[in-house]
Amino acid sequence: MKHTWQITLTLLAMFLATQFIGLAVIHAYVGKQLPYGMQPPENIPPSNATLSIIIAFVIAIALIFLLSRIKAKLFLRLWFFVVVILAIGITLNSLLFYFKIPYTAAIAALVALPLAFFKIFKRNLLVHNLTELLIYPGIASVFVPILDVFWIIILLLLISVYDIYAVWHSKFMQKMAKFQINELGFFAGFFVPYLSKKDREKIKYLKQKYKNKKTAENILKRQKIKVSLAILGGGDVIFPIIATGIFMKAFGLLPALFVTFGATIALLILFMAARKGKFYPAMPFLTAGIFVGMFLGWLISLI
């Protein structure tokens, strides 16, 4: 297993929590308009919607690659800043529906603004991961109304092929993740740094040995202590939400939950099979789990 059980279960819990939030957000927008002009066009054929998503995805990847090569860090931060505000705003707006208060979109945006600021421009691990729980449900709610089961299956297969190429062949995913973490100061996905048991014990020993806090900090800076990173990319979180939301739209909540649990079990299998020092494309595993969940959910819908 690549990470410790504690870190693995933490990532898995955040993934599953985001899936449930996504279902709640998608359900809340049934029969309602998305705020901030994000409502997708009505009556657009799913085939055209899928093609538009693929084109937009390619353009976005190309832009990120180009901007990272020319070190346009401020532009990238501002771009992500706007996206984060919109996504969190959409999620919070749906949750505010239940309070039946006016100006929910404006209130949601006001709450999203400082969260996005601390996420993008300040390094805060807690804010980063908490906002990740809210970002992907908001983005998924834009795509669910314009796709159907057949086209999400096609999209998942295409994304899986791309993920394999980007991780194992071009190494683009690793380069993009390193650029985000090292140059931009944030990461589009769940991000959990941790220390090995040996390094934790070393730090504890040095702090006990050197009672002076400043002395202990100076000694620690000279020690070779490696911080391991457990990450789960945003795409690996959002596509299962979209698939589950579409399946819920077609067959109902109970069959859709099979898709959620299928993806979660597939992710757990990946975490258990992964080895330290190696990178793995998560989407092929998630897609397999989603397909199994879809099949079981479809069987349940027939009962």
Fold and architecture overview:
There is one protein chain. With 303 residues, this protein is mainly alpha-helical. The protein has one domain (5-34, 42-302). It is 75% helix and 5% strand. It is built from twelve helices and two strands. The chain has a two-stranded antiparallel sheet. Helix 11 (253-273) packs antiparallel against helix 12. The longest helix is centred in the N-terminal third of the chain and has 24 residues, at 5-28. The two termini are 39 Å apart.
Short summary:
The protein has one domain. With about 300 residues, the chain is mainly alpha-helical.
Distance between the termini: 39 Å
> Helical element count?
12
Mean residue pLDDT:
88
General shape: globular
Percent range for β-strand residues: under 5%
How many beta-strand runs?
2
Low-confidence stretches: none
Note the run of SSEs as H and E. Answer: HHHHHHHEHHEHHH
Biggest beta-sheet profile: 2 strands, antiparallel
The overall number of domains is: 1
Which class do the helix and strand fractions yield? mainly alpha
Strand order of the largest sheet: 1-2
As a percent range, the share of helical residues equals over 70%
Gyration radius (Cα, Å) is 21 Å
Question: What are the defining features of this structure?
Answer:
303 residues, mainly alpha, two-stranded antiparallel sheet, 12 helices, 2 strands, 75% helix, globular
